[in-house]
Amino acid sequence: MGSKYLPRSVKVVSNKIESADTFSIVLDWKIKHDPGQFVQISIPGIGEAPISIASYSKKHIQLTIRKVGNVTNSLSKLKKGDRVFVRGPYGSGYPLEEVKGKDVIFIGGGCGVAPLKGGIEYLEKYRKHFGEVFLFVGYRSPGDILFEDKHDDWKKDFHLFVSVDKLPSKTCYSGNVGFITELVENQKFTAKNKVVFMCGPPIMMEKTIEILKKKGIKEDQIYVSSERLMYCAFGLCCHCMIEGKLTCLDGPVFKLSEVKNF
Predict the structure, then answer these.
(1) Domain boundary among 89, 105, 122
(2) What's this model's pTM, rounded to 2 decimal places?
(3) Helical H runs in the chain?
(4) Tell me, what's the pLDDT at 1?
């Protein structure tokens, strides 16, 4: 097996709090990868977890991680200069090279915005090769919004739409309130020359797909990121199988016409 299957020790450059339960670590790891791919990150004695790459850079990788268990809680405590073990990258990413010249629609819900961020950064770098770009991002509340410091930059080149499901009793948030599905439904765009990349809770993606189809967008224009717990990451354990496909090899990004149970 090649070197991408062997864990290597890398240094933590930074650890930034994004929200109450989400953080981003930057690793001093120069690897070639596609937006949408993932890596396996581990702490000896604690465990290993698959995490999507949330950046597009030749100098480092960023992983945006939600605290949901022992491994991710331990990762959240890392400091600059600490070391972790990583292997990868794995899987298929967003086929951005193949869709140059098209209008691109990104739709992300909650921590599902993180994998899309690598694709967004790719389009920032190669902006002239694409048509109009729409970014729809939705969160539970203002306190859950990710990458808010990037919004001004995204607004320069893209059509950015941000929404939260609900407002707490005390907040200074003045943006849109409602489900992300409403943002997509209310925005006027034609299906011609469009490609959609989507990541988020399955119920959100299902409802959004219904809306996109009503707008004339076909299944082969839509790509979804699937979340499965990928133990080995190279197709041996088969724990991540969906409809005969392995998420770690054939995904995590799938064309909608290829899978239904994402």
Answers:
(1) 89
(2) 0.92
(3) 70-75, 113-125, 151-157, 180-186, 202-214, 247-250
(4) 43
